[in-house]
Amino acid sequence: MKLHYLILIILVQATNLSTRLYAGQQKKILLSEYGIKNGDDITETVNKVISSLKNESTVIEFPKGKYHFSAQKAVKKLHTITNHDNGMKNIAFNLSGLKNITIDGAGSEFLFHGEIIPFLIENSGNVKLKNFSIDWEIPFYVQGEVINSNAREGWFALKMYDKGFSYEVRDGQIGFPIAENVTTFRNPGESIAFDKKTKSPVYGANKYDYHGERPVKVTTMPDKSLKFTQKLDNYPPVNSVFIMKGHMGTNRYGPAFHAIESKNIELYNINIYHAPGMGFLGERSENIILRKTGIKLREGTNRYISTTADATHFANCKGSI
């Protein structure tokens, strides 16, 4: 028995030593040393730092602040994503192929602009992301208060929310220009009506969903409201807030976080206020932990929805989720 205890003690001490050595070898990158400042667009700086990493244990630390990421300066990658639109994607944090990496935002706000995926974790392992929030300057939907409707004549009118949203009416169609040089004109598509007071979907909200590419004529009225002329079975209730995100097949650019073919992923103390798709998507990955991570509306916002698809989604994952 004494021999067994002695062997156990030796193994424990060896493990502790190994842990200390591993921790001692951990590389730390302070982004404050790269000259980034609160309010900067740091897309290129982040690209440069991440592309320089080797397969060594690394911690990247941000000074607390508000940082911008733009689609034009992001990494370009042809990428397929389950339950989203496939194609060439812009990636802010491309962690593909990296192992043993921690990114600590120190309570920072990450604000994204245009068609961009914040985090891609592909063929990666032991990745920990913590202490920051995800949001977009302009969300991937528009919303307006229903101020009038006429079932006999076949129309309803919306007083649009302008602050923090972007839309345009051209040639009788509503467009969703979400960023400079990114304008897609399309039909209202998938839509849902919300109760203005509770911010919950109205009773029977599915009755008011366009959910397709049916033709609709949009007219800007003298009071700046938008008149949607189309014969429908049901019109959204007056005083409800109607949200439209475009037709299925073009309205899910990507999730805030995409983990694919990866192992041991942890998100800690992160708020996802918006994404042009799902919040966190795990695909063909193993062991994923989300702790103190919320997919929710920012306090005080005039928005009615956060992510435009599932808060979390796991496809063909295994291990501990």
Describe the structure.
This protein is mostly beta strands. 10% of the residues lie in helices and 42% in strands. Strands 1, 2, 3, 6, 8, 19 and 21 form a 7-stranded parallel sheet that branches. About 3% of the residues have low confidence.
Mean pLDDT: 90
Biggest sheet descriptor: 7 strands, parallel
Helix content: under 10%
- Write down the Rg: 23 Å
How far is the first residue's CA from the last residue's CA? 39 Å
SSE pattern, N- to C-terminal: HEHEEEEEEEEEEEEEEEEEEEEE
From the helix content, strand content and strand pairing, which structural class follows? mainly beta
Discrete helix count: 2
* Unreliably modeled segments: 14-23
Principal-axes geometry comes out as elongated
- How much of the sequence lies in strands comes to 35-45%
Summary keywords:
7-stranded parallel beta sheet, elongated, 321 residues, 22 strands, 2 helices, 6-stranded mixed beta sheet, mainly beta
